[in-house]
């Protein structure tokens, strides 16, 4: 059984989003599977193109969040929201 190391509980989100790079390169579309106050689990089509830091922009009135990748599994990534 896997131990849950999260500081905040995650809630299902299932939202469309995008990884933004402040105009340095084209945005990458993503699906936000779940999120908490401290991070999220996202899925992207091209995980090899995702750098360790980016801005996550989600639909549904959520403010953009600076993120750092904390784990990668195939097309899914776990990200922590930066302060």
UniProtKB/TrEMBL annotation:
This protein's name: PilZ domain-containing protein
Record GO terms (molecular function): cyclic-di-GMP binding
Domain PilZ: 4-81
InterPro entries: PilZ_domain
Upper lineage: Bacteria, Pseudomonadati, Pseudomonadota, Alphaproteobacteria, Hyphomicrobiales
A UniProt-annotated Pfam family: PilZ
């Amino acid at each position: 059984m896997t131990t849950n190391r999260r500081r905040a509980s995650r809630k299902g989100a299932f939202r469309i989003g995008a990884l933004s790079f402040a105009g340095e390169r084209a945005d990458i579309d993503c699906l936000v599977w779940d999120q908490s106050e401290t991070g999220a689990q996202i899925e992207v089509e091209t995980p090899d193109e995702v750098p360790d830091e980016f801005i996550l922009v989600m639909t549904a009135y959520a403010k953009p969040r600076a993120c750092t990748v904390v784990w990668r599994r195939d097309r899914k990534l776990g990200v922590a929201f930066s302060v």
